[in-house]
Amino acid sequence: MWLCYDVMTTYSYRQATDEDVSVVTDVYNEAIVEGGSTTDLVPVGYEERNAWIDKHRDPYAVFVITATDEDGTRRDVGFAAISAFYHRPGYDGVCSLAYYIADDARGRGAGSFAMRMLLDECAARGMRRACTTIFADNSASTGLCERFGFTRYGWMPDVAYDSRHTLHGMSYWYIDL
């Protein structure tokens, strides 16, 4: 387990199980409704998210991010995933990363914790390269990619809508592990 501390919060993670479907679904649906971070246009159901988690077989995985406050209060604040980049064997060792943090937990280090954990898990799982696709105007996530040493290898203008029908450009990032 990898731990990270901010001024008042300790972060930890665990691999998601069937008991975590609700937190993964709820955090993801919050992001869908809010707009600006996913191309899903309507909230997803628990069965759909459960099937998505089940598809993440080793070396891929979904993780739940937990925050513990100074007073010992623990709560799940997000999730992160290592997914297949492309389902052809020549791409084995290349993965796609994603993370979502609950709105009320953002700006407190949970995203940085998620990114560091994902990169550590990728290396431990034998990945050679990690990629991610981000709305180009999502400055928090693009800033994390820059801070962690990712290289932007592409940008496509005005290509994807979010749930609020806002058209976004997409930025494409990778890092060698």
From TrEMBL:
Organism: Bifidobacterium anseris
Any matching Pfam family: Acetyltransf_3
Coiled coil: none
GO molecular function: acyltransferase activity, transferring groups other than amino-acyl groups
Domain N-acetyltransferase residue range list: 11-177
Keyword Zinc assigned: no
Record carries keyword Transmembrane helix: no
Record Gene3D superfamilies: 3.40.630.30
Top-level lineage group: Bacteria
Keywords, ordered alphabetically: Acyltransferase, Transferase
Name of the protein: GNAT family acetyltransferase
